[in-house]
Amino acid sequence: xxxxxxxxxILRADAQVHLTRATLxxxxxxxxxxxxxFELFWVQNGKVRHHLPEATQTLSEGAVxxxxxxxxxALQGRGEHALVVSLCIHPALIKALGExxxxxxxxxxxxxxxxxxxxxxxxxxxxxxxxxxxLERSRCDTIAAEAFLLPLCAExxxxxxxxxxxxxxxxxxxxxxxxxxxxxxxAGLVALTGKAHPxxxxxxxxxFGLTPSDYINRIRxxxxxxALTTDADPVSQIAADCGIPNxxxxxxxxxxxxxxxxxxxxxxxxxxxxxxx
Length: 277
Hints:
Elements: E1 3-5, H1 7-10, E2 17-23, E3 33-35, E4 38-51, E5 56-59, E6 63-67, E7 74-89, H2 91-100, E8 115-119, H3 122-136, H4 142-157, H5 167-175, H6 179-182, H7 186-193, H8 197-208, H9 212-230, H10 235-241, H11 247-258, H12 262-269
Parallel strand pairs: 1-3
Antiparallel strand pairs: 2-7, 4-5, 4-6, 4-7, 6-8
């Protein structure tokens, strides 16, 4: 018979979340367990076997898993130093967040599937662990719990990738949002995958309907549009920051994306709110 964990036995009377760090034993769990709360856990170090009723998954460092009440599972270390961080979250908190933020519906705890999995790269995992430390030091009340959950939920629900796309390609596309990557163009994206350029190109066309260059240029133009409306840097500097020093090419890409030249776009959308005239 599966063990049932209950939030009433774990959460303090005034707490909405409880955080646990655990180094997992390598022995296979004797049984799966169930729980009446929402659980969020991520693999902070090493590899983990995630036992489910229908299958066993191997999770690597950076895997983030959202579990709903009633989802039966168990964790097992794979090798030494398998470390996970786990959050027990009060059901009322998740219900309230879903009611207040309709865009969460269909995602994460609100997907209706019992289990949703994502992945964080090294930089994102470091940020997640930093947020977890702040949560640990807090009262773990509603405000502290939402301060932790909402930025993570906003970030993950904003990520939309084609169904069936391989993990290596999704990880590279997510990392390509970093200026250090997109400034290098398609070559920067391909280098992240560790795979041959023709293979990456075929996969991008299959799942995204875009070439690596098209994908990177979309990111570059979105970055340029934000910069044009939030600061006063010269257009030439913004183009260089995008990794496109050729101004003619930059203007062509921007106009094809937004229908205006960079200067026209800035004049239409930039608003002086600090020192309005």
